[in-house]
């Protein structure tokens, strides 16, 4: 009878443990419990119930624990890169604010999105996308911190004025918006055509791969820059292509509850632009952080009389012995700023152009009007 | 010969479900046919159901003397995928046998 009691205890434990599973998986533990009576031998029943506990442990504890450990490892690596720095370096306080803000965004948003929008979509692709997005954000913020630190070594001449703080906080909010969009688009509630999002993101990746070599350390907004027309061309063609493609795919695969094809086209184009902008910002910042000595010096350089452009007040004169280092630091600090600005603008531009292209792509083809009978030749009953 | 993308255990579950694709099976029958423990079998069934390869439902009505069972069978897409995977697995085994390599047995085939 000892064995029966043990079995009852295990079954009760499994029933309670099953509540740890997500709501849509609790039925599987109930299914396993319902089968226990089918197993003939007592040892077999014991093994069956232990298998059930393993199932719950694996699904409810192991998966979240692995995800939490991976996130903790990423956050720790970011802290080790972003936090240190001498007190004389003016980028250090900014880096620390970024570190705390980024970790908070990445840790809190999944819970908020899960509560108000819903859980992650089933399958490996949405989870892989989330992991890749998180890794990209962590790497980008880490590289940005290194770049900022190298570019502000003469902290007294690189004062972080309130205007710069405001821009940096705005960029942090934009990164938060990217993370929120990634989480929302990979929930079950957002019904998109099956291949729409992967196709749009693939277009974004291809565009980023084609454009990045044109300006490995950040595109210059100088109107004389030879690569500038290509960037403009990509900024117009990519959303048009992505919007039209996704809308056509959505129109072909009509599923109940899915978004209108034009809305999907706009979303797809925004995603394509966001993917391209994010990848270019990521790779540019990593390149600057790894090879700061290869960054071309700014042209035109700082004033020849030693005037400090980044001081507050800016009438400060830089001593002669610091002027070259100031010039190098200034070039490093300001390189790669355009890709960060693109993070903000590109998805908005993409959504607008994508909606237009999607509308055109899904318009029904005009048919020739049916020939009408000439007067006097109407069909008769005869 | 392409890889199937399924583990040997998953292939054994697919093989058991393919044997009589129209009929609904319950967990213990599948465990007996595949030799898998419950802690291995159910995660496989969960993944297959999430990928739309297996459909699951609860038995109709309350049977006397036992709880209602959860039943499983392949969807039409699941049947096609299972047959393709099992054919690919068989071809790989033939190729390995011809090359004198080890043979991986899948129970239920």
Q: What are the secondary-structure elements of chain B, in order, as H or E? A: HEHHEEH
Number of strands of chain A: 0
C-alpha geometry of chain A: flat
Termini separation of chain A: 96 Å
- Backbone CA Rg of chain B: 15 Å
Largest sheet of chain A: none
Helix content of chain A: 55-70%
Give the quaternary arrangement of the chains: heterodimer
How much of the residues of chain B is beta strand, in percent? Answer: 5-15%
Give the rounded overall mean pLDDT of chain B: 86
* Low-pLDDT residue intervals, each spanning 5 or more residues of chain B: none
Which structural category fits the helices and strands of chain B?
Answer: mainly alpha
> Widest sheet of chain B: strand order?
1-3-2
Unreliable stretches of chain A (pLDDT < 50, length at least 5) are 376-382
Q: For the terminal residues of chain B, how far apart are their CA atoms?
A: 19 Å
Give helix and strand order of chain A, one letter per element, not per position.
Answer: HHHHHHHHHHH
The biggest beta sheet of chain B reads: 3 strands, antiparallel
Helix content of chain B: 40-55%
């Amino acid at each position: 009878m000892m064995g029966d009691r043990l079995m009852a205890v295990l079954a009760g434990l499994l029933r309670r443990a099953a509540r740890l599973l997500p709501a849509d998986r609790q039925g599987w533990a109930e299914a396993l419990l319902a089968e226990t009576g089918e197993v003939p031998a007592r040892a077999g029943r014991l093994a069956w119930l232990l298998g059930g506990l393993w199932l719950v442990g694996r699904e409810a504890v192991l998966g979240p624990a692995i995800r939490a450990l991976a996130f903790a490892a990423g956050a720790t690596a970011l802290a080790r890169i972003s936090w240190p720095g001498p007190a004389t370096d003016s980028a250090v306080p900014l880096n620390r604010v970024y570190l705390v803000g980024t970790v908070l965004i990445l840790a809190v948003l999944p819970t908020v999105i899960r509560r108000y929008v819903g859980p992650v979509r089933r399958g490996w692709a949405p989870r892989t996308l989330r992991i890749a997005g998180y890794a990209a954000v962590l790497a980008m913020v880490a590289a940005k911190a290194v770049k900022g630190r190298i570019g502000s070594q003469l902290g007294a001449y690189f004062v972080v004025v309130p205007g710069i703080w405001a821009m940096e906080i705005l960029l942090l909010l934009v990164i938060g918006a990217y993370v929120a969009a990634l989480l929302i688009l990979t929930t079950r509630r957002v019904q998109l055509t099956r291949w729409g999002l992967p196709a749009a993101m693939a277009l974004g990746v291809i565009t980023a791969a084609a454009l990045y070599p044109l300006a490995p350390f950040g595109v210059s907004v100088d109107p004389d820059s030879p690569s500038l027309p290509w960037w403009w061309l990509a900024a117009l063609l990519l959303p048009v292509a992505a919007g039209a493609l996704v809308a056509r795919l959505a129109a072909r695969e009509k599923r109940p509850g899915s978004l209108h094809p034009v809305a999907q086209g706009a979303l797809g184009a925004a995603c394509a632009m966001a993917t391209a902008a994010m990848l270019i910002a990521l790779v540019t910042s990593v390149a600057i952080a790894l090879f700061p000595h290869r960054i071309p010096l700014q042209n035109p350089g700082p004033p020849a009389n030693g005037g400090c452009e980044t001081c507050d007040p800016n009438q400060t004169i830089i001593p002669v012995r610091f002027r070259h280092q100031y010039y190098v630091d200034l070039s490093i600090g300001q390189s790669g700023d355009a890709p960060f600005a693109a993070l903000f603008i590109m998805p908005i531009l993409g959504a607008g152009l994508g909606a237009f292209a999607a509308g055109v792509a899904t318009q029904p083809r005009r048919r020739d009007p049916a020939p009408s009978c000439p007067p006097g030749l109407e069909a008769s009953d005869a | 010969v392409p890889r199937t993308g399924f583990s040997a255990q998953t292939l054994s579950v697919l093989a058991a479900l393919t044997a009589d694709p129209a009929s609904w099976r319950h967990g213990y029958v599948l465990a007996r046919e595949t030799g898998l423990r419950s802690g291995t079998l159910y995660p496989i069934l969960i993944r297959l159901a999430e990928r739309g390869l297996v459909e699951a439902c609860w038995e109709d009505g309350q049977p006397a003397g036992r709880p209602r069972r959860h039943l499983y069978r392949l969807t039409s897409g699941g049947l096609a995928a299972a047959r393709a995977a099992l054919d690919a697995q068989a071809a790989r085994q033939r190729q390995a046998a011809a090359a004198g390599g080890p043979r991986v047995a899948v129970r239920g085939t």
